[in-house]
Amino acid sequence: MIAGPIDPRVPPNDPEAERAVIAAVLNDAHVMPQPAAPVARALDTDTLSPDDFYFTPRGNLWRAIQRAHVQGLRPDVATLKPDLNERELAQAVECVRLGGTGANVEHFADRVRDAAHRRRALLLAQRVTDMAHDGTDMRRVEALALEVAQVASHMGAAASNVAHAWRPIEDALTEPDPDLAALWPGLVFRGALSLFAAMPKTGKTWLLIAWIAELVRGGTWLGSPPLGRSARVLLVTEEPLFILKAQARMFGIEHNVDILTLDGVAPGTSWPALVSATAERAVETGAEVLMFDTISTLAGMEDENSASDVNAALRPLLLAARTHDLAVVGVHHAAKSGGIRGSTVFEAVPDVLVEVGHGKTKRQRVLTVRSRLQDAPEDPVTVEWLPPMGEVVAAYRIVGEGPVVAAERETERDARLDEQIVREVEQAVAERGEPIVAARIVERIGSAAGRIRGRLAALVREGRLARTDGPGSGSPYRYGLPNHATESVPEDEAVPNLSREPVQPVPTCPSPVPCGSGTSSPNLSNLSRGAVSPRAGTGASSGTLPLRATEPEAPRGESLGLAPPAPARDVDPAVVGRNPDGSRRRRSPRSAT
């Protein structure tokens, strides 16, 4: 309570309590190596904010004391002196001379806090009165009035209003437990506050946006059973709109998400009012998830190391989750040295704390979960980002998950890519009237060349696409629809044709005399031009040599150009071959001699 009557012309304040609190801490620091238990509670989870002090030098002195305590230093005058100006140092000396111990520090802290609440309530009430007179939108007036009520709930006079909340334990045990529906098993529940923390630019927002995308689609997320319905999400963020749009396209978000960017928040809107208005919109629209990215920026937090400031930022979120059965997700930053940045209240208040760190590769992130709720993973979970491939949106998968689950995910992803490849081929054939090469398909889809080429081969094997040879030797394959493409020749049966002329069959010798007898090979004139059998003789010839001979295997000696002797009864020495008309050609008199 405030000492003495309240002068309506002076804002409520309690200078005696302010000096007593500071004196208790400073004198305790002179005699104790570590703060006494009451002093430690006043400085940590039940601390005063520097703004709770009516006299500014005392508020600045309290801020220096809190900073020293967080840094593990003894908050005495000698330690604080470098951080204090002349007036603040004078206040510190005055408080030390006043004397006191930490035994009653919490009592004096309550008095300082009570006066601060009264000042704030009067200020807000005056603002409500002014806004009601000047024609301000009544929704803003109501939001501010709600904030007045919340301030009043912290005042000592409000204690009588919560008497009805007391109940015997035996009655409480008979009440049904709340149904904490899991929207991200082990991490995010309706009726609970989850805090995700990571170093800046680590990708925590990408991970959460990917999760929201699956909520909207009602699909499965990191191995969890599919939600089976589309959940609605409200997102309040410091990110500019153009970045949000890029993230939405990357992960395929097209509906059921309402966004509020920082520049859309009306100037002067308090943090409790913003949270309350967002929760009311969730009730009106049927949303199940509220996400705030990041809490420090949206709440306008000046000192993340101040336990009272952090409590003031987190309590409205916790209240929204409990009161309206909403899954509330907050985003915060981690410290460079590890752990959560700022006061330990960031770790104490949320129901679930998720720390996101780097994995072994650039695309991997490690999630470490601390929770007071059920089903929290005991070991860190490693997830990996899968980049988008054309119309196939980006996604995440668990690293090291079972082979069955991993195979199912790959099969689903391949099926989605196959559908896009077939659509692109159909469209290309319709536009060009002919099949297209793989490079063109990769260009149309936009990425993942290796994966696309692998899927093209699979689609050909399945008969959904047909593959043809290119127009020339060394040309890449072309892909089209089965009814637009011709069957390609297997590579092991293909015959190159470098001359571009049709290959004629190699004729066989009409007579029993082997074609290879004689070194001049006079019978080559009867052969089709450009087609010479390797076993037809040893003379040189222009043209293309077929890879396979069409006549039966020649005797061993014939391969050397040596004809075996033939029976005399089957040989006419004067006949050396046949003319084009089929008649026998005889040896000329000169050659006979």
Rg is: 43 Å
Biggest sheet descriptor: 9 strands, mixed
The total count of helices amounts to 18
**Shape designation:** elongated
What structural class results from the helix and strand content?
A: alpha/beta
Strands of the biggest beta sheet: in what spatial order? 5-4-6-7-3-8-9-10-11
Strand content: 5-15%
- Low-pLDDT runs of 5+ residues are 1-7, 156-163, 485-504, 508-563
Q: How many β-strand runs?
A: 16
Please tell me the overall pLDDT. Answer: 76
Percentage of helical residues?
A: 25-40%
- Terminal residue distance: 146 Å
Please outline what is shown here.
The chain is an alpha/beta fold. The protein has helices at residues 15-31, 37-43, 56-70, 77-80, 86-98, 105-133, 138-153, 169-174, 204-217, 241-251, 271-285, 295-298, 307-324, 345-348, 403-432, 438-445, 449-462, 589-592, and strands at 182-184, 188-189, 192-198, 233-237, 257-261, 289-293, 327-333, 352-358, 364-371, 381-386, 395-398, 436-437, 466-468, 478-480, 575-578, 584-586. The protein has a nine-stranded mixed β-sheet with strand order 5-4-6-7-3-8-9-10-11, with helices on both faces. The protein has a three-stranded antiparallel β-sheet with strand order 12-14-13.
